[in-house]
Please model this.
Amino acid sequence: TKNTWHRPDPSFTYLLSFFLLITSLAWGLAYTPHPASIVRLVLIFIFVHFLALSLLVSTAAYFLVGRLLGPGVAGLPGRRRQGLFTQAGDGDSLEFGYCFDVAIRAFFPVWVFIYVVQFILMPLVSLDHWICLFLGNSLYLVAFTYYTIITFLGYNALPFLHHTELLLSPVFVFGGLWIASLFGFNLPKHVAPVLLAGAK
Model:
């Protein structure tokens, strides 16, 4: 692992996949009609929602973050940061494995709030009351805000990237969409069926 930021330890991926297995069984038993549907939901939760989307996000980050926030990018003022044990020119290239590590760790709060808390509160947040809409939509705001913050912290740890605070900008977009949704768009009622898509 010398001169690399990526640590090839898949234990967190396995652990979160196991958590998704448990939650997919719960979702399947509650909302899908047949055992075959539950099996399909398990595969969708783990291989599509978690691994495929994390792979997509990490691929986009690999090609975009290093080029937009890396050293020597024109139009980004400010002095390049230096790590405590890293000198200029040492390990200053963004690795795909590191991007994937950041993506899967950022998925954890999404799992907590969207796959666990939403499942528990689904009978409440799906009701046609404004306070239920507020609570349900806030789950998505918190989940994706945490996702953005963890992503920022992951890339902010790399001393050869600068202006990583720009990675926090989606939080303002999420906040604006959350405010707009409070005027009558219940996210759990519309997004929960999407989570189950392909299983029924």
